[in-house]
Each structure stands twice: as C-alpha cells, then as structure tokens.
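Homework-ish question, so no full write-ups if that breaks the rules, but can someone show me the predicted structure for this set?
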Amino acid sequence: MTETVSPAVAAPEPGSQDVVYRHKLTTRVTHWINAVCFTLLLMSGLQILNAHPALYWGEFGADGDRAFIEFFASRDGDELVGHTRVGPLTVTTTGLFGVSNGSDGDVRAIAMPSWATLPSFRDLATGRRWHFFFAWVFVINGLIYVGASLINGHLRRDLLPKRDEIKPRHILQDIWNHMRLKLPKGEEAKHYNVLQKGAYLGVTVLMLLMVLTGLTMSPGFNAVVPGLLDLFGGRQSARTIHFICAFLTVAFIVVHLAMVLLAGPINEIRSMITGRYVVPPEDKS
Amino acid sequence: MKKKLLTRRSVLTAGAVAAVGGLTVAGYRSLIAPNSLRILESAEYVTLNAQRALLANQPLAREFGVADMSPTFKANGTTNPESQAYQAMVQNNFSTWRLKIDGLVTNPVNLSMADLKRLPQRTQITRHDCVEGWSAIGKWTGVPLGQLLEKAGMADNARYVVFHCADDYYEAADGSARYYESIDLFDAFHPQTILAHTMNDAPLKVAHGAPLRLRVERQLGYKHAKYLMRIEVTDKLSHLGQGKGGFWPDRGYEWYAGI
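A: Not a homework solution, just the prediction itself:
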C-alpha cells in the first residue's frame, strides 16, 4: 500500500552499490505462485495427455481420425521404440516421448515420461484433481497480477514497449546484443529491454490462451460460451492449442532461466524475492 | 541421473504445499495421502457451483449438422456385457427388456421399448467428450428423461436420478464391478437429457449401450450410462457402490463431470 508507483528509486547502500527497488510486492508474490501453479499444471496436464496422447484439429477426434500430433510406441524385435509425429514428420523419441523408463526403472510404452507427470504413475483421476485445483489458483492469481499491473502502472511503465523501442533498428540492435550475450548495464539495466518486454507480454498471452482453451474443453462451459468453440475452431483444436501453448511456455521458461543464470542468478532471484536489485555497473572503458 | 530427477520432484512438490497453505512440508507421500487429496477434491465443488451459476438458465449444448458427424464413433468402456441375463436379451432382440423407474416416485414406471418409442421423441446431433480427451459427434434419438420422471411423479425429497446398468466393468476393492451413474435434477430435466435408443439413425448397437443409454450433454462421457435397466430416484447417493454416485466416481473421478 505504501509502495511508490514512481520509477525505480535508487537506494544506495554502503559500498556505493547502485541498488534499485525493482519488483513490487504483488509482482513478486504472483510470480512465485504462478511458477508453482504452472509447474503443477504442466505435470498434471502431461498425466492427462497420457490418457489419449493424440491431438487433433477441428471439433472431433478419436482413434479412427487422423491426429495432427501424436506420441506412440512401436516394437522393433524385442525393443520398444518411441515416436513423436507432428503432421507428416515423425521422429524417434525413445527415452522421452512414446517410450521411457517408469519410476521403477522398467521400460514402458507411455507418451510422457514418469518424471514429468503428476502423479508419476499412470492415474488420470488424480491428475485431473491436481489440474483443476491448481487451475483455480492459477486463474485467481493471474487475475490479481493483471489487475494490479493495470492499476499500479507495471504494464504501462515496465512492459509496454516505448515508441522508439519498436523501431526495427532498435529491435535488431537488441537481438544483436543478446546474440553476443552483451547484457544491459547501468541505466539501461534499470528497465526491461524490448525483447524482454516482448517475452513477458507474450508469455502472459500464452497463459491467457491456456485458460481460454482449457475452458473450451469443458462441455459445461461450451453451453455457456459456445463462441469459444468458434474462436478456436472446435474442442479438439482448442485441446491442441492448449498443448502448444504449454510447450511454448516451457520454451519461454528455459530461456528465462538461462537469462537469469547469465545475468547473475543471485542478484536476479533476490530481486524477485525482496524486490531489491543491484544495478550492474557501467563498463569503465 | 534418476536420483537428481527425484530431488527435483520433491522440490516442486514442496512448492505446491506452500501454495495450498496451511500444509506442513512432509514430502511427497503425505501429499497423496487421503487428507491432501481431499483438499484437491474441494475444487470439484467450486467448479460445480461456478458452472451451475453460469448454466442457471439451462442453455443447450451445441447441436451440429449431419456433415459434422464423426465417420466412426469410438465405442469405449464395456462394449459387450457378459452376463447371461443380458446376452439372453441380445438373443431375443430385447423383446423381454423393460425399463423400470422406481425409488422416490408415486407411480413406478415399467415400459417396453415399444412403449418408449410411442412417447414424444427428441433427436440431437451432439459431441461426446471422453474424460481421456477424445471427442466424437453422433446423432441420438430418444425420450427426454424429464418427461418420464414427470410421468413417474417424484416425491418432494427426490434429489438424484440413478442409472443402473447391465454391465460389469472392472472390480473395485469390495469386488463390485456393476456400472451405475447418477445425475441431479438440474441435469435430469435439461431438454437435451434423453434416454437414447437410436444412434446415427439405427437402433443402438450393443457396443454403444443397447438397448438404451443416457445422453447427458454438457458432461463427460462416463456420465452417459449405457445398457440401462433401471432408473432409481433417490434423496442420497451414499447407499450405492462406494457412495460416490457412480462407477468412475467410486474410482476417484469427479461426480460432476462438466469439465
């Protein structure tokens, strides 16, 4: 309540480090709740996917229909071989998708590996219990985050790119900086760069899409808002988009964690816990 | 490598405990203990009440055109009940089959298939969504359940409609395996809740629940009980099976399957 809405305030500490107050309390709390929820939703979601590991396009899709993406196993002599097919492209994914080791070490034909699912053993009913409990926590937490970001200026001030940031030259420069792993220092490190803004806004859109496509899979909710079926091209399309958005979110998290490591994990993680961030000093040269 | 993954799992699980709040971190095992599962199950009541509020004016599930139908409609669960009594009815083309409606009713009903077909019918092309994730679109003709319940005259304390089926699926801990399902009056009187005897313009096949199955659009496939023999109107579900109101609910699935 007493937190300021003004731009990051410098709070110099002994030793003359430039420390700024980077993340507001709502941002920090909702970030961690979201991280827990997404992890549990992902793992329980992969458990649910295991019950029918084929994704279709359109309103219907079952065993007799051509899947758009599928995970399956085949037998080569005594060996089980795992496959992943996306459209016309099939790749062997033994050990990860289609065939993997169970928690007891035995090789088995299953779409998603035991270590990635919740529960680790095959149990659709319990997977659904986890999924729909944490879906509620995820949605409520997400609403608090979006609401707070609109009110406290986080969206406008920190996330929406400024006019000159969306010029191609600026974006190309930022991509070039990232490719050289030249991370911002000094004044520039006090706000998000344009790729960061795009990534954070993008992952927020992915999460919104996951909620909407999740609701589109509910036959009860379909009767309330049938328009969502048209928006996503049918229930099975919504299911496929739900999975693709989860996959893209995992890709975001991989890059996100890599950037945290590159930028200085202790400083970055502390800024998301206490809010305080030590600005990397400008190069003297 | 394997050790490492297990460590990661316990870290993630510990995070979940913090999010639920009030739970002590005691590792993975305590989380799947009955008490913790009960916390997860509380979401079912939130979902049920949220959906009931949204569905208060009883909107219809989407109905499709003939062109939208699945080329093949997957048959799931029991596809051929083994009991001698059922197989005998298959032999005589269900001429000895009767639908009974009893329990908390003033006029118990006992109808043959010919009797059922003489009543006003409803035909709908709807999407069937299995809890596993797949969907199929089929055309169903049958008698609205609400019409039969009115004919039977329900007692004031009636709350649930229970569907007793002819098939045994797989055994629960107590050895029972008989399929049954239940819905409440909110869904029982929905216009699209029908007892279907005809699928895709042909008499219902054995694989799909001959001679009669429930269609309760707006809920998942396992609620759509097949091989209907008897309908019981009750005020509670605790006296049936494991007391959760259905074959799959007794095995951990939600009683309310609108999501």
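Now go work out the reasoning yourself. Hint: The domain at 61-251 of chain B is CATH 3.90.420.10 (Sulfite Oxidase; Chain A, domain 2).
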